[in-house]
TrEMBL record:
Transmembrane stretches, start-end: none
PPM-type phosphatase domain segment(s): 186-467
Stored Pfam families: PP2C_2 (PF13672)
Protein known as: PPM-type phosphatase domain-containing protein
InterPro entries for the chain: Ig-like_fold, PPM-type-like_dom_sf, PPM-type_phosphatase-like_dom
């Protein structure tokens, strides 16, 4: 009675009708009248229905207006993100479905409360979230909320692959991958045009060469043409070929024979004198090779009437030979391309050169620079190591070094090399595996695919040579 009286009192008051104290008894009789009571019950029932409808609509509109952000996805990449109703405080939702997810390769998993899948197309996808809240009739239509969802395109798809001009007099292949015996080992080497060059139809600037020499030595050469140099592709090719040509000459071959005698002395006496003789031998013979490369580049520049700097290129090369006491390795390097030797059980790494990067190197240097040969550090560009055995000899351009090792400080870290080998073994985003075995008939195809790895911001030419 009290609640009804309050309802009617408020209703009367809203219509400017007040009930004075001296009429309370009359008002009570008025409310108790059978017909009046029935009318009041109808009013109360209608008010309750009205409030229930308002509360229901308020729940719906609150969900409809609530901003919901979903983590961006990328075409081709496995995707998962939480879509938890409790997080959104959507406790009143009793039925729901998503429209638009399956069309782009996604679905909602109620158990994990996640949107998962592999997106198949990019764009601003309008996902429709259809729902009902507690209190809505079963036959009521679903409410529809549009959830904006961005699927980014696969970054790889944004890069063009424009063919380089085959009519150019200095054209060379965009991608080269080779596998061959070398010495008592095998070499697997690949050089690929970078995406930044492919995107505009320019040329591969990296190059490489390798060869077995008649005196039991084998040689591997890698060069990285400077991106700012107009004919660096030719400069790197000349550099690689010049090194091989130098060591195939009779005089150079005879010079290397002297190393056999020095090594025999070194084996019997590792004193300071013999070490100096070995260092002098390496400096003298490899230094002549490096200088011959420089002279050949000078001659080509003069013939073509172009500045020498148009042929700017880094250069690294390694000679190795097996002796009864192990392997002798001789090296030279100018620029930012590392040479590394991993011991037999991959517990140690030996760096055969230092890089022209940072404070130590003072910035990138090229074999075209005359000051290289006059600098006091020239003698430190040569290396000699005698190792019992090795698992891998690796030489690479910065197109591999930058994405896989990032900074020079990581190169002496054997853990990083183990990670690099694991990457080659298939532990990578694409699951591309290279089986480094001599009897692997698919090794060139596997390696070529691996060389196409994606690394954000790293789209330069890539060259990697592995002797194993």
């Amino acid at each position: 009675m009290t609640d009804i009286k309050q309802v009617v009192t408020k209703l009367f008051k809203s219509n400017n009708i007040s009930i004075p104290a001296n009429k309370n008894e009359l008002f009570d009789k008025f409310l108790q009248d059978e017909k009046n009571a029935a009318s009041i019950n109808v009013i109360v029932q209608n008010l309750n229905e009205l409030m229930a409808k308002w509360k229901l609509e308020d729940k719906v509109i609150e969900i409809m207006q609530q901003p919901v952000r979903v983590l961006n996805a990328t075409v081709g990449k496995p995707y998962e993100t939480k879509f938890d109703f409790n997080k959104f405080n959507w406790k009143d939702i009793v039925a729901f479905e998503f429209k638009g997810l399956e069309e782009v390769g996604l679905r909602y998993d109620e158990k994990t409360k996640q949107i998962t899948g592999v997106p198949t197309q990019s764009g601003d996808v309008k996902v429709t979230f259809r729902f009902k809240v507690d209190g809505q009739p079963e036959d009521a239509p679903f409410n529809e909320k549009i959830i904006p969802f961005i699927i980014n395109p696969d970054p790889k798809s944004l890069w063009k692959n424009v063919e380089s001009d085959k009519n150019d007099p200095h054209w060379k292949e965009n991608d080269v991958t080779k596998f061959a015996p070398l010495g008592d080992r095998h070499i697997l080497v690949s050089s690929k045009r970078g995406r930044s060059h492919a995107n505009v139809g320019s040329f591969r600037e990296d190059d490489f060469a390798f060869k077995d020499l008649e005196n039991g030595w084998s040689i591997v050469v890698v060069a990285d043409g400077a991106g700012s140099a107009k004919l660096s592709r030719k400069g790197s090719a000349i550099a690689c070929n010049s090194v091989v040509e130098f060591f195939t000459q009779k005089e150079s071959a005879e010079g290397l024979v002297q190393f056999d005698e020095l090594l025999q002395q070194y084996k019997n006496n590792t004193g300071e004198d013999i070490q100096k003789k070995l260092n002098h031998f390496v400096y003298n013979n490899l230094g002549k090779a490096a200088f011959q490369v420089h002279k050949n580049l000078e001659s080509f520049a003069a013939k073509e009437n172009i500045p020498l700097k148009d042929l700017n290129s880094t250069l690294i090369f390694t000679l190795f030979k097996k002796y009864d006491v192990g392997y002798a390795l001789l090296s030279f390097g100018v620029g930012d391309c590392p040479i590394a030797v991993l011991n037999k059980d991959v517990t140690e790494v030996t760096l055969m050169n230092w890089l022209d990067v940072g404070d130590f190197g003072g910035g990138t240097r090229f074999i075209t620079m005359p000051e290289i040969f006059k600098n006091e550090k020239f003698a430190t560009r040569f290396g000699f190591k005698l190792v019992d055995d090795f698992s891998y000899l690796m030489m690479m351009s910065d197109g591999i070094y930058d994405p896989k090792f990032v900074v020079e400080a990581n190169l002496p870290n054997i853990k990083k090399w183990k990670e690099f080998l694991a990457d080659l073994g298939g532990k990578n985003e694409d699951g591309v595996k290279v089986e480094l075995k001599a009897d692997n008939k698919e090794i060139e195809q596997q390696f070529s695919r691996w060389m196409d790895f994606w690394s954000t911001g790293n789209h330069d030419d890539r060259t990697l040579a592995i002797v194993f």
